[in-house]
Amino acid sequence: MRNPLADKVVEIKPSGIRKFFDIVSEMKDAISLGVGEPDFDTPWHIRDEGIYSLEKGRTFYTSNAGLKELKEEICHYIKRKQGVTYDPKDEVLVTVGGSEAIDIGLRAMLNPGEEVLIPQPSYVSYEPCVVLAGGVPVIIELKGENEFRLTAQELEDAITDKTKVLILPFPNNPTGAIMERKDLEAIAEVIRKHDIFVMSDEIYAELTYKEKHVSIVEIEGMQERTVLINGFSKSYAMTGWRLGYACGPRAIIEQMVKIHQFAIMCAPTTSQYAAVEALRNGDDDVKQMRTAYNQRRRYLMSAFKEMGLECFEPFGAFYVFPCIKEFGMTSDEFASRFLEEEKVAVVPGTAFGDCGEGYLRISYAYSLENLKIAIGKLAAFVERLRAEKRA
Amino acid sequence: MREELLAIVERNSRIDLKELAVILGVEEIDVVNELAALESEGIICGYHTMIDWEKTSIEKVSALIEVRVTPQRGQGFDNIAERIYKYPEVTSVYLISGGYDLLVTLEGKSLKQISGFVSDKLSTLDSVLSTATHFILKKYKDHGTILTKKYEDTREKVTP
For the whole model, what pTM was predicted? Predict the structure, then answer.
C-alpha cells in the first residue's frame, strides 16, 4: 500500500505538552499547574443565554461570518476598548476559537515560501499553522532581559525580503509578557518601513495587570495592515464554547470568510448567542476574574521572591515564567523530576520554543488555596535541589 | 484597595494579614490600618463563621417571618424593629419594600420554640398586624457559598 500521509503533516513535531499530559493523566493524586484555561465556570447569565437559545430552537447555521448581532457587539466592544472602528458588515469574522482565526488568517495571507516571523516563547500553534499554510516560519527568540517583549532591533534583524507577516502574541502565553504603547510604537515603525503585515493574537487582552491593554491597531497606520484576533475563551471563561473572531482589512477578511465557509460553515450557533450576552453584560464578570488572577499573580511573585527563584514580573495572561537556570538542569528535566518527586505538573518552557529553555510555565488559573499547596511543594523541591548542589 | 479588601474578607475573614498584604500588593501595616478603620467606621461589623448545621447532630430550625406592622408617628419602623431584634433568637431583621414590612429571620431549637415565639411574643406586639412564618427546609446556597456541592476541577490536567 502507498503511504497515505502528507509529508508536511508527518514532519510536524507533536506538541511538547503531550508528554506531560500523558504522565499526569495517569497519576491519580497529581496537582497540576499546567492548565491553559480559566478555572472559573462561564458566568451563569452567559450560559443561561446559550440554554435559552436552544430552548427557542436556534439550532441552525448562522451566516458564514457570524450572527449579525454578534458582529455588531464585537465592533462595539473593540471601539469601547481600543477606540478603533471596524465595520460589522465585512471587517469581522466569527471563528471557532481564536485558533481557527490564526489558521485561516495565515492561509489567506501566505504564498508558498513567504516568511512569517514568530516571536517565541509563544503559543504552540503558530509554527505548525504557518507550515500547513505553505509559509516558512522564522523564529525570533525573545529574551528574559527584555522581559520577553519584542524589540524593534530584534524585529529588524529578522526581516528579509521574503517576510510577509509578523505574529504578535501579546499578552503572551507562556511568559505573561505584555507590549506597552511605547513598545508597540517602536516595532510599528519597522513594520511600516518594511511593508509587512501583522497577525495580532490578543486573546488575553482583558487580562493585564498594569495598564489597560494596548492593541497594535491603535498605533498609527497599523489597523490597515493587521489582522486582530481575539475571542471569548480567556476573558469570559468560555474555552469549551470554541468561539473567537478576527477583525481586519476587508480584503483579508473576505478571503478568510471564503476558507471558513468551505471548511467550517459557521461557528457554533449556541455559542454565538451566548457570546452576544457576554459582550453586552459581561464587563463585571471580567473585572472580578481579573481581580482574582491579579491576587494570585501577586502571591506567586512574592512566593518566588521568598524562595529566591528568579522571575521577571509578568503583567498579562495568567502565567508566570520563572527561570530555573541556577539548578543546571534543562526545563524538561526539572519538570519531570518535580512531577515525579512532588507530583506537581508544570510545563517546561521549551514546549513553547527552544528559547524557553531554562524556564517553566506556571499557570495561576487555580484557586489561591490550590496554588499555596503546590507552591509549598515547589519551595521544598527547590530547597532539596540546592542542598544536592551544595553537597 | 478598600473595595477589594472588603470583597476578600467577606469571603474569608481568617486570611492572615501578611497574605492579605501580598495579594493586594500593599504593605502589611496598610492592611492593618485599613481594617482598623473599617471596623471603627462600622463597615466591618463582625467576623462570622458559616456553619452548615444540617451536617451536625445538633438540632436547629430556622424560619423566615413576614411581618406587617403599623408604623409609628415620628419613629417609622425603627421602634418596632428594635423591639423585635432585641430577642436573641432573632438573627436578622430587614425593612422590606412590597407586600409586607419586616422580614425577620429566626433560629430556634425546634418548631415548637419558633411557633411559640411567633404566637406569644411577636404577634402580641401592639403594632404587629399580621405574621406569616416560613420554615426553612434546606439551604442550597448561603452568603454566596453553595452548600450542596463541592467544587470539582474537571479541566484537562495539562493544556497549552
Answer: 0.94
